[in-house]
């Protein structure tokens, strides 16, 4: 097999066009080609009069070994294959995995395939039952504090865009992608430069991963909340869990703590247990919502209606003179803003897209970085308290009925309460009320957001559109703490057999990096148990 890089394709390209480009590049005959497969596909929209795809393709040729030496193109390489080697556990042991988000699911899958006994516990419900609870809140304002956008199988990412973009260079990234595809995700995530599964396609994929874990002998316990970790000396001995109001003890050799970024009661518990944790930076702000068509036009110019391009994606950031970073996060093209609270009398927002990305609006988090110096306390959980405070204020400003406070961008820039909507209507459920973000967020955040919007508009025309809509608040961008762990063993400092893992522990920043961290923790456990 050979790999050809940098193939230029128009926005409306066909398979025949692609084949023709390959033939021209390597100077072969059509009948010499056995197979062409996309390896990577990206959109180059830097010039609005020349929006196009750049493709990298893998090509299998008839009589390949003889033909390769005659190919002179500098774009052609011979790729190195990647194959994940599944580790096998040689000794009997039991691991409890806490949390069925990406970190917990991938850790459980690797452990179950190794032959190890595992129990996966999740405080929320299965993705099927969880979906019913989430929709009941969005439609009827009935919040289930144990089954919502934050808690339940699949983690917070199950009700987002299913974005798989990541900055990590770990080779296990490919393993995460391949597992998603083998469990039902669209194959295009393997080659799209900005891959996404979509909430609708992610849910059955998660269910299929769970079913494989069970088929391999793993136990999966839903509506089961961790309440304590028991030690013998400095070693894990058991966990105490609560289900249906009853507590029980589960004895185990290891615990993977993949609790997610919103398990605040668990944060309190591990603080009281004396685990070594530290506050960490994160970011807060609001969701900004534009008409999808306007964003697409701004990005793609006259090509914006080309179906292959899809809804356009942006990622913006700027560094202000005041030292603050302002950036967009978790952009949902053709998506909606959703209620993502897990506690009563709070408002939390997130973005969500289905695979088609065909809703009328596009939205993104507009965030300002905050650090422990901003939290007003030396308490290790001060960042969590900072989040809780603005979420309660958002609830009150929204009217105290789970409506989210909204403000048109033009009014926000003037620090005025909006009186009516413009052309952008809110997509947020359960509902919205006009309110000022300055009554919710600290002044240094709202001032930074105003500066950021103006600067980002220079890079994405229309970002500062007066009718664009801000919906508050976005407060769960990442965990407010980090559970310190040994770099070599990945165990919590001073505790044998306890593995802080994923986004909640402060070691990941999205679905893919969380999945990778789960795989790495599983590998470390197998390595240790094998001696």
- The first-to-last residue Cα distance is 39 Å
**SS class:** alpha+beta
Helix percentage range: 25-40%
Main sheet attributes: strand count, strand direction, barrel closure: 7 strands, mixed
User: Which residue ranges are poorly predicted, with pLDDT under 50 across at least 5 consecutive positions?
Assistant: none
Shape: globular
Widest sheet, order of strands:
14-15-18-13-21-19-20
Strand fraction equals 25-35%
How many beta-strand runs?
A: 23
Counted by DSSP, the helix tally is 12
Over all CA atoms, what is the radius of gyration? 24 Å
- Average pLDDT, all residues: 96
What does this structure look like?
With 531 residues, the protein is an alpha+beta fold. Helix content is 27%, strand content 25%. It contains twelve helices and 23 strands. The chain has helices at 15-26, 64-68, 102-114, 127-140, 172-182, 199-215, 264-272, 292-300, 382-397, 409-413, 443-457, 511-529; strands at 2-9, 33-44, 52-61, 76-77, 94-98, 117-121, 219-221, 225-232, 235-243, 246-251, 254-257, 277-279, 282-291, 317-319, 325-332, 336-339, 349-352, 361-370, 404-408, 432-434, 469-474, 481-483, 498-500. The chain has a seven-stranded mixed β-sheet. It has a five-stranded parallel β-sheet with strand order 7-6-5-11-23. α3 (102-114) links the parallel β5 (94-98) and β6. The two termini are 39 Å apart. The relative contact order is 0.15.
